[in-house]
Amino acid sequence: MSDVTAAAKHGFTVNLSILFGELPLLERPAAAAAAGFTAAELWWPFGAEHDPSQSELDALRKAFTEAGVRLTGLNFLDDLSKGARGTVSVPSERDRFRANVPVAVELAASLGATALNALYGNRVEGVDPAEQDALALEHLVLAARAAHGIGAVLLIEALNRAESPDYPLVSAAAAVEVVDKVNAAAGLGNARFLCDLYHLARNGEDLAAVIDTYADRIGHVQIADNPGRNEPGTGELDFEDLFARLTAAGYTGSIGLEYRPSTGVSADSFGWLPRELRAAG
After folding, report:
1. For the chain, which ranges sit under pLDDT 70?
2. What is the 3-state secondary structure (H, E, C) of the chain?
3. Which residues are catalytic?
4. What pLDDT digit, counting tens, does each position of 128-151 carry?
5. pTM for the full model?
């Protein structure tokens, strides 16, 4: 990307659950700082542990604070380590999700995070989708209220159907519909659309149209190039145009880097983004 004018309008945050994944988790904040980043986000970082020990939580906090990196976004219990896509709508995970909410919110608050992402969860064979949707709304309202308590937004994300065939939110419209339902039910207005341009592109959506249509609902943006889910410049997406469209549509938030480095070495994957633009601002 030779022209970085549009990129300069946005701060950047690096997702440490996918970038610097070649390092142990507790070493990743320092590696991000060494690469010039001041902010990071995480999927749920404790695997299937919905209520990790105080020592585990403290170690993660220490890694961020000592590196001088702020956590800007965190997933609620997502069970990604088990191949799942969230726990919000899964009846068998009701107790684990509900117990996780205060834990995730407290961790987010302690590190300055102002966004919490609640992955919807896969459809479960033998369970009525309407039952799952009702449970999801109940849980998302609970999560929205908890996030509101720390001044955070609740993010709801669309994934791509090729990689997540059992996940029901595989379009921007489907995710925004849930956002609107949560805001109506909770009455807080803090549910927002997590606009992941990679997932939407993989689904074949018109990204410019998505940005223009849902700009007022977007709470966060994440990127990876398509195809491949690698860094910008390795695929077909025109990020300069997309960044400019986001700015023109009124999006002033950060851009989350959620890609796999094409060479397997994260520190070598940021050449597209000048170092002076990597700080979150």
Report:
1. 1-5, 281
2. CCCCCCHHHCCEEEECCCCCCCCCHHHHHHHHHHCCCCEEEECCCCCCCCCCCHHHHHHHHHHHHHHCCEEEEEECCCCHHHCCCECCCCHHHHHHHHHHHHHHHHHHHHCCCCEEECCECCCCCCCCHHHHHHHHHHHHHHHHHHHHCCCCEEEEECCCCCCCCCCCCCCHHHHHHHHHHHHHHHCCCCEEEEEEHHHHHHCCCCHHHHHHHHHHHEEEEEECCCCCCCCCCCCCCCHHHHHHHHHHCCCCCCEEECCCCCCCCHHHCCCCCCHHHCCCC
3. 157, 258
4. 999 999 999 999 999 999 999 999
5. 0.97
